[in-house]
Amino acid sequence: MTPLTLAWSRGRMELLQFSRSRESVVFTLLFPVIMISIFGSIFNGVIAPGVRFTQYFVTGMIATGLMTVGFQNLAIQIPIERDKGVLKRLRGTPMPPWAYFAGKVVFVIVVGVVETVLLLAIATAFFGLDMPGSATDWWTFAWVSVLGITACTLCGIAFTSLVRTARGAPAVVTPVALVLQFISGVFFVFTQLPTWMQQVAALFPLKWMCQGMRSVFLPDSFAANEPGGSWELGKVALVLGLWCVIGLVLCVRTFRWSNRD
């Protein structure tokens, strides 16, 4: 098999396993949609001239959806496979190690695209989200999504080294994901959060993913409400790129194919 065929074969198997787990499908694909429906129905106010809270919230949920697929899903799923001995058995087969990770990447890309399209369709149809009107905005949307989901995927794989057992994976990973959402401006306007909270959030990818998404879907006038007074897209690219490098280094140095025991 060629490398491309092998990667797709592994990715197809990952997608089949995912589709057969109704709990994973509901949590990964429908949870962001449910959150948009709830918050969109409760909060109808305007947070800035021409910007409703729903529009602001949707941009954060798009970024959160990418983080859920890349970081949270893998950080829980991989320890389960490791606990069951799946990784150890795969390591003993002729399949090259990179193929396992390639399959995870294919899975993350496909599910991430499906989830993003679903969120955009729901938000546009029911909550008045305006789609980007220029090629520049779509280009920004593309590179923020690619860098963001790459950073989250690598960090999700690296984070598995901190999870000792499959049973403890959700208890370790879910609180981290929820805290990042609350401090990164997903549920609240970022500049209304305490200063120390903004500074902590700025250390992690999700805050910059949300900011990049806001630059695509919100009017340019809203940039004055950002901490730096502008969209700071150069800094968005820099931070997300750094997290891709950090995540890759941590993956190489810390990933384990079997339990410590």
Automatic annotation (TrEMBL):
Its membrane topology: Multi-pass membrane protein
Protein location: Cell membrane; Membrane
Annotated signal sequence range: none
Top-level taxon of the source organism: Bacteria
The keyword Transmembrane helix belongs to this UniProt entry's keyword annotation: yes
Keywords on record: Antibiotic resistance, Cell membrane, Membrane, Transmembrane, Transmembrane helix, Transport
Domain (ABC transmembrane type-2): residue spans on this chain: 23-258
Membrane-crossing segments per the record: 25-47, 53-76, 97-126, 138-159, 171-190, 236-255
A Pfam family recorded for this sequence: ABC2_membrane
Matches recorded under InterPro entries: ABC2_TM (IPR013525), ABC2_TM_bact-type (IPR047817), ABC_2_transport (IPR000412), Nod_factor_ABC_transporter (IPR051784)
UniProt cross-references to PANTHER family, sorted A to Z: NODULATION PROTEIN J (PTHR43229:SF2)
Family note: Belongs to the ABC-2 integral membrane protein family.
Descriptive protein name: Transport permease protein
Organism, as annotated: Pilimelia columellifera subsp. columellifera
